[in-house]
Specification:
It is built from four helices and three strands; from the N terminus they run ββααβαα. By secondary structure, the protein is of the alpha+beta class. It has one domain. β1 (2-6) and β2 form a beta hairpin.
Length: 107
């Protein structure tokens, strides 16, 4: 079952649940707001498979975007096993998420 990040109501990123969980947990480790980090960890802990970025405050959306731009791809790459068969595809998907966040900045 895939997990989905809704950047806007119309723009969504989906990935296998394991990659969604890894991505959201990685963002949780990078955002400076402890309350936002807790929300992200709860999304994974409750197996929700859904993260609506557009429902966050503008400040929180900015934190997510900044964390994604600065560290997400590198951190996920560090956490993925080098021998993972779909490693390059997984990293490409994470790069797509970063680009989607970058191209839909908080307003």
């Amino acid at each position: 079952m895939p997990g989905t990040v809704a950047i806007t109501p119309q723009v969504r990123w989906s990935a296998a649940s394991w990659l969604f969980d890894l991505t959201v947990n990685t963002l949780a480790a990078e955002v400076p707001d402890p309350a936002l980090a807790a929300v992200l960890r709860d999304i994974v802990g409750e197996n929700l498979g859904w993260f609506a970025v557009h429902e966050l405050t503008a400040v929180q959306r900015a934190e997510i975007t900044t964390a994604a731009e600065q560290r997400l791809l590198t951190d996920v790459a560090d956490k993925l096993p080098p021998a993972l068969a779909e490693r390059s595809r997984a990293l490409s998907l994470v790069a797509d998420l970063v680009q989607l966040l970058r191209s839909h900045p908080p307003t």
